[in-house]
Amino acid sequence: MNSKESCRSELRIAIRQLSDRCLYTASKWAAEQLMGIEQDPANFTPSNTRFQWGSSSIRRRFRTNEITSTPIAGVSYVSTPVMEEDDAVDGDFYLLAKSYFDCREYRRAAHVLRDQTGKKSVFLRCYALYLAGEKRKEEEVIELEGPLGKSDSVNRELVSLERELSTLRKNGSIDPFGLYLYGLVLKEKGSENVARTVLVESVNSYPWNWNAWSELQSLCTTIDTLNSLNLNNHWMKDFFLASAYQEIRMHSESLAKYEYLQGTFGYSNYIQAQIAKAQYSLREFQQVETIFEELLRNDPYRVEDMDMYSNVLYANECSSALSYLAHRVFMTDKYRPESCCIIGNYYSLKGQHEKSVMYFRRALKLNKNYLSAWTLMGHEYIEMKNTPAAVDAYRRAIDINPCDYRAWYGLGQAYEMMGMPFYALHYFRKSVFLQPNDSRLWISMAHCYETDQLRMLEEAIKCYRRAANLNDREAIALHQLAKLQYELGRPEEAAFYYKKDLERMEAEEREGPNMVEALLYLATYYKTQKRFEEAEVYCTRLLDFTGPEKETAKSLLRGMRTTQSGFPSMDVEHFSP
Amino acid sequence: MAGIVKPPGEFSITPHKVSVCILLQIYAPSVQISSPFPFASVAQHNRLGLFLLALTKSCDDILEPKLDELIGQLREVFGVLNPRFIDHLTTRLSALLSPDDLFNFFTEMRGILGGPESGALEDEQVILDPASHLGMFLRRCILAFNLLAFEGVCHLLTNIGVYCKEALSSCASYETTCFEDSSSNLEAFSEYENMDLENFVFKKVTEEIEARKRASERVSFHLHAPKALFDLVEDIEAPADPKTKHGDKVGEASSYVHPPNYGLREFEPNSGIFLRTNWQIQGYLQEQTDALEKNGSSFSLNAFELILRQLHKLAPELHRVHFLRYLNSLCHDDYFAALENLLRYFDYSAGTEGIDFVPPASGSSSFGRYEIALLFLGMMHFQFGHPKQALEVLTEAVRVSQQLSDDTCLAYTLAAICNLLSEIGVSSTAGILGSSFSPLTSIGISLSVQQQLFVLLRGSLKRAESLKLKRLVASNHLAMAKFDLTHVQRPLVSFGPKASMKLRTCPTNVCKELRLSSHLISEFGFESSTMTTDGAFSTAWLKNLQKPLGSAILSQENGSGSCENAFQFCVQPSSIPGSVLQLIGSSYLLRATAWELYGSAPLARINALVYATCFTDASSSSDAALAYVKLIQHLAVFRGYKEAFAALKIAEEKFLSVSKSRILILKLQLLHERALHRGHLKLAQQVCDELGVLASSVTGVDMELKTEASLRHARTLLAANQYSEAAAVAHSLFCMCYKFNLQVENATVLLLLAEVHKRSGNAVLGLPYALASLSFCQSFNLDLLKASATLTLAELWLSLGSNHAKRALSLIQGALPMILGHGGLELRARAYIAEAKCYLSDPSFSVSENSEVILDPLSQASAELQVLEYHELAAETFYLMAIVFHKLGQLEEREEAANSFKKHMMTLENPLDDEDPLFNVL
């Protein structure tokens, strides 16, 4: 793609501009992407390659279609002119203010800039004030924790900032950074619609500010709002869309976008991590693990997104790898919510649920709105049979993000444990609504319908059927379907499902009680249907197993032979001992 | 964090308490400092003491007064004579500029407390006893201050700054804010506008900005957002309250949403500075709950939701808010929101607050009481008309509460199931109700729904009695009465020694149950105050505050030294809780219904009147509407439509806000009735269809309305002379009533069938129906309906030929006392006519000898029918009169009667599309 070079130069300028304005996260992001662009072989130098994934195994393994050379047809990017700095040389005031800012003395920085009128200075002053307010707010939340746990501390700078910025916007003397800050303030104040327009304005005139994009993304919770945005077609938009799709659970769309972006930013850690996230949602744990191994090799001190890696390790029950990861992040930065979460996961895997809860609690103390910690803590409480605490934890997760299907599922489980299956059904329904592609959810719901108290077998069958169509890993659904159909007196359906189950087990080379049960049922079924040949096949297969079934199979065989050899009217049961 | 409930009601120091401390210092100056203000009189000194006492007692209240309010109160109590206090107060407050000032202030405060050893009292020296109420208050303040960390001191300081500044600024702009409050507070609902409210808080900040503005002159500070922005703002506002759009309606709208408004002011952001205790907010919520229950739909959904959301922000650990949100959405028929909030509430609270919560004796229920969640969910499904889900959920509730041996919940659940079964037509409970709680099903005897209901009712009553749940006992008695009213008690087991049982309902039982249920009020009379919760008290204080202050001024002017009026808010408002009153009220309503069924119009009317006059304040608006409906129906039957419609108009205005209104149904009923009488059959059919549409489409729900609609449909068909169709409709109606065990309705339907056959000329076919209806009436003690059935029977006999006239006459005469005593206009007229016809067709009767015997009833009938505008029957009356006059040879009268006959026939055949304003209502 010939745009690589232009991307690179755009990013280089943007990084300078962003860090001039102390938008550190955005400039970090931009710098990461800059390094993520594939180097031209022309200026390859040996020292350069060391930082690159020259031998990336992932790329070889997972790059399914070579998009690199084929940009999507019809996509023409708007070239946004790089913003001209209004004052080429920073004033002395600005320099002083910036150094104060860098030392996190926000109010001092704002004070220095009080009389400056340049756009850059105005922005930095407002931004410093905003951050000062945020800092104070955080402190107040702890100081003011009343008996009702109230948290009505507000950023006290918001009102004045909003006035000033809206005036600036009206005058037309606002730059994209100012718009970004204005959008941030508006969002905080709850005027989401206005915030969205302002942020769109900001990213359209200056697309390299990832902060603005991510604020915008947090305001787009439905596909409709996303589609209604009027965005210029810049390559940054693809990053935005990919992350927004992920947030609204359109995982495959998101994955496609990221894979497309990889064409340009082939070495971006960020994209790798996001792809891992999408794969994780699609439950492709193997790939996620590989990606993270690779990531850690390149970026060993990374803490971001590592909680997801720990989840994968947890699911695969790799306790030593998990402990290694926990140790590593602990040494890097122990007071990151992600680190606490990873340690919590480790203890949970080890079965030490009290300790695990302690670490999840610490993670939540560090970030009250840390969604997965709430959910995971709920799981721990479930393990500890403390259902009310579990319910509380799950509910908090839901109040933070009502689309968290794990928490809904957990609530359903908790209520089922308390012997309230009908009540639990509502929660299961919610979770399958949000994640209809997960067979485990359908199976749990079916199980709930099946309980002694409800016995709503028809509904259970429907759920199992969904689960069976969804590549059910544990292969519970087919077996249960067969059993239920038998219970409801539908031998043909039962035979159909037993047969399917059997085929599956054969394909996966698994044996066990389910296999015996299926064989036995099929044998008797075909015998009653007078299809002796099939029955015989199943009976002979049964003979390979030990146990009482073997004897039953033998007697069945005997019975069939006698029937075939001339006692047609005789019932077999009389013969069997 | 999970499962941790914070201790309620911490005492924390606020600016208001600091002012009270300053006043305390004025009241009891310390020994070292001589009193700065010698009091003019002892009375004045005492008055200050009393005022302080009231202030300290109310210091736990939901909303602390702001400084200007406090000053206002001081002015009222002391008149304009003594502004020095106020100056002193404000100067002291504004002198508190640094943390050190606060430290010194509280050390000084310690000085005014008398030590335990200071026995020697000097003259005129007031020393605060540390154990007295005021002394305790002061000590608590000092303690709270000493416990504060430095951050806390800083916060107190800023809060005092805001507190003073607000008072000063609001003095200047007091009038404008007052004015705006009344006219434009609707706008304040949108969150966007709330920014303006916050201006007070951020005064300081704005000053800073203003300073900055002066420095850089270019920036103008008028808030003129660009047009696009404004549009967006409107977008935000619109869903908040649609009424804002109708500019001219703001006046009435604002009075309409008054209660939420009132609440909003309490929770505007800047009042969030002052901490309130758990109990106080709970009290506020309790009050709102009552208000919602009483008059749900007059709350504006969004406005109240907004308050609750704000409240939730302030106190995220207070889960009751979710319950109120549930109630709010329930009142506005928002199923999804209601479900969501209900589940959320119980997820958080685990059922450990709320109904008759008994702290668990054993450790068994330390795991939360989620069965209550089931109970509420069941009731919610019931409310929304999902009987099947409701039954499922309630069954689960029974099972879970049995498992956890939660007897209270079980009792309530059983009561809820009874309620469900009696309200909703269920043709069979097989497979739905678990067998565990009915002792008989375990023996393998299948019971009918009614029998099962009876068993349940008995069990629930017994359980409630043993648990001493008084309200539940009372409502169970009511349910029992309801059951006895419409059901014959049969022996439960069909084998064994047969008790000689009359297959009749037993009115005395109904009476007994009703009386038992109203015992409740006497029980609550004795133990009045224990029932009110703390929170409810503190809000009651708040409510009364506005009133007595006005009267305090009066007493001031009268010169009487006592100002007790000002403090009467310490008195408990009412000794009987609203829920009890509500129960008693509904027993009266039930009485009215019972008498209506048994056929005593005056008694029914009196009971409805009692309800309407005594219990409307305490009752929910839908119950009150029911009482009005009964009264208006009575009017329509006994006084004709004109008066009924006049009364209806009043009722409509009164219950404007009630959704799914009974008033609307009543209106349709009246319109239908009148249309039938006047012969406007098209209109009648239209009205009838409208009535049918109001019912829910789920089987078993809204049975009453469904029966009513199809009954009226049949009658309309009958009036249109479509006999076979009418009979078919009536027949299917009978089948439905039989299926759902609606026996009382069965009697009516049978009577209608008899009527159909009579009109179609098949008197012989009609007779068995009439007789069957009679026997139904007998076994259910439906006396008035029985009289009416007797009348129909007589008419049937009469139409069989003149040789049955004697028998018919005796039947009619037997029923006449009942009809004349309790029957409505139509029934009476019909009886008169039938009587006259009997005489006329009796060959042995001579008209010329006994003309009065015929003419009197006929003229009565004609008068009554004209009131009713029942043209068809009126024409018949005049026809009969004309015949009689003809026989008597009174030609002039005959012509007159014939003319009247003609007139009525004309109007019947050409229904005038007259002036009626009620037509276009539809």
Automatic annotation (TrEMBL), chain A:
PROSITE patterns: TPR. GO terms for cellular component: anaphase-promoting complex. The keyword Repeat applies. Residues 7-276 form the Cdc23 domain. Keywords: Cell cycle, Cell division, Mitosis, Repeat, TPR repeat, Ubl conjugation pathway. One of its GO terms (biological process) is anaphase-promoting complex-dependent catabolic process. It comes from the Eukaryota. TPR repeats lie at residues 337-370, 371-404, 405-438. It holds the Pfam family ANAPC8. Coiled coil: none annotated. PANTHER family: CELL DIVISION CYCLE 16,23,27, CELL DIVISION CYCLE PROTEIN 23 HOMOLOG. This is Cdc23 domain-containing protein. It comes from Lithocarpus litseifolius.
TrEMBL record, chain B:
One of its GO terms (biological process) is positive regulation of mitotic metaphase/anaphase transition. Keywords: Cell cycle, Cell division, Mitosis, Ubl conjugation pathway. Signal peptide: none annotated. One of its GO terms (cellular component) is anaphase-promoting complex. Residues 322-422 form the Anaphase-promoting complex subunit domain. Transmembrane segments: none annotated. PANTHER family: ANAPHASE-PROMOTING COMPLEX SUBUNIT 5. Belongs to the APC5 family. This is Anaphase-promoting complex subunit 5. The lineage of its organism: Eukaryota, Viridiplantae, Streptophyta, Embryophyta, Tracheophyta.
